[in-house]
Amino acid sequence: MRSLAVAVMLCALLPLFHAGCWFEQAKPGMRQCLYDKDGTLHDIGSRWKTSDCMNCYCQANGDMQCCQAYSEPTRFPDDCMMEFDQKACKYNVFKKTDRSTSCPIYGGKGK
Q1: Contact at 8 Å (CB) between 73 and 105?
Q2: Which terminal Cβ of the chain has fewer Cβ within 10 Å, N or C?
């Protein structure tokens, strides 16, 4: 019965993984959320954007949820290329021959 409960919970979380999200349970005794990648602590109920472009939330019970703060282009014209702007947390899509000319984006994943 316990295995069934775990399987149902994992299936319920599956859409979050496809959306570029992850979830971390609070460690016993923690009164803040710890974002391991940069070692920062965040208060219960707070929301923040990380240096690696994730939008995070520290829930009332100390659990933490983070989702990528950008979408990744998956379809755009062949004569174009994409480049990630870490400072703006977004992809720019532009002509391969002229970086100043933006290209249309027809599909994306994430966010």
Answers
A1: yes
A2: N
pLDDT of residue 1: 55
- Where do runs of H (alpha helix) occur along 1-111? 2-18
Tokens standing for residue 95: 């002509």
Q: Give dist(CA 3, CA 88) in Å, integer.
A: 42
Radius of gyration of the chain, Cα coordinates, nearest whole angstrom? 18
The tens digit of pLDDT for each residue in 31-51 reads 899 999 999 999 999 999 999
CA distances from 69 to 77, 100, 101 (A): 24, 24, 24
CA 69 to mean position of chain CA atoms: 5
